[in-house]
Amino acid sequence: MKLFCPLCHATLQPHGHQAHCCHCDKTFAIQPCCPECHQPLEVLAACGAVNYFCNNGHGLLSKKQAEYCLQSVDETL
C-alpha cells in the first residue's frame, strides 16, 4: 500500500500505525476507515488474522476492503 502526503503529495514512509513525510517533516496516523461511511473501524484480531468491523451497520470488512485515512499527529487536519 502506497501512501501519499495530503499536504505535498510526496510518498510517505510507513512505520507501524504511522507514516512520515520527509518533505514536510509531518507524521500521520494511519486509521482504517469504512469505505461506505468513512468512519473509523474497530479492529478484530484473532489467530494472527486482522479484520475490521464497522459499527455503523456495514458489518465485517477485510484489510483489503478497508480504506486507510491519514490523520495528522502533529496537529488536526
Summarize the structure.
The chain has about 80 residues and is mostly beta strands. Helices cover about 0% and strands about 45% of the residues.
What features would you describe in this structure?
The protein is 0% helix and 47% strand. With 77 residues, it is an all-beta fold. The strands form two sheets. Strands 1-2-3-7 form a four-stranded antiparallel β-sheet, with no helix packed on it. A three-stranded antiparallel β-sheet has the order 4-5-6, with no helix packed on it. The mean pLDDT is 90.
Q: What pattern of helices and strands is seen along the backbone?
A: EEEEEEE
Which range best describes the helical content: under 10%, 10-25%, 25-40%, 40-55%, 55-70% or over 70%? under 10%
What's the mean pLDDT score?
90
Q: Total strand count, please? A: 7
Number of helices: 0
Radius of gyration: 13 Å
Distance linking N and C termini: 22 Å
Poorly predicted runs: none
- Strand percentage, roughly? over 45%
Helix/strand/pairing category: mainly beta
Q: What strand line-up does the widest sheet have? A: 1-2-3-7
Major beta sheet summary: 4 strands, antiparallel
The shape, in one word, is: elongated
Secondary structure layout plus pairing:
Layout (H helix, E strand, L loop, with lengths): L12 E3 L2 E4 L4 E8 L8 E5 L2 E6 L4 E4 L4 E6 L5
Antiparallel strand pairs: 1-2, 2-3, 3-7, 4-5, 5-6
